[in-house]
Design a protein that fits this description.
Number of strands: 14
Number of helices: 0
Strand content: 35-45%
Radius of gyration: 16 Å
Amino acid sequence: MMFKLFDVQKAVHLSEREAVTVSVNLREGFVFRIDFVVTRNGAVPSWNLPPSPVNRDEPFWELWNTDVVEVFLAAPDFEPEGRPHYFEFQVSPSGAYFELEVIQPRKVTNLMIRTGVRHGTLQLDATKWVAWIELDLRKIGWSLPPENLRGGIFAALGDASDRRYYAAFLPQQQNPDFHLPEYFNSLLSHPSNSSSA
């Protein structure tokens, strides 16, 4: 499935500065793969990277303050109203990553989760960044048909003075918040924001 992310503060798919396109697919049974392509238009300052050096094998706390692409995956026991249990995965242009189990948004989390998620940056230059995240869904307890997988897809780009927030399924927001599991949507079959782009 293909998705184009939109600027949640402006409710448009393309900003004057960036475009984020995402491809989601299932490999070899339960292996979930998401590929992100972030492109920039015109002269834009450099990418907002975490401080060096970065250990690409350990989760980087506060990675969300840098340029980052993200996917949230609902846990098998997920219920938007009663049990909004999900997993958050992020990757930055530097290849740094972060993972978190969210048991109750903004209240109860598990920072010690280690799912064996694989991630990387395939291309990084002044105008394009290509990244990927891959996970065996069974590592988060998934045994349901993969077509039932729900979640959210996001990007946060720019430094603190000029931050932009992109999402696949969220409504327009003045103060962007990605932790709204009631807006999770299907990631592998007939989502409402799929595109053949």
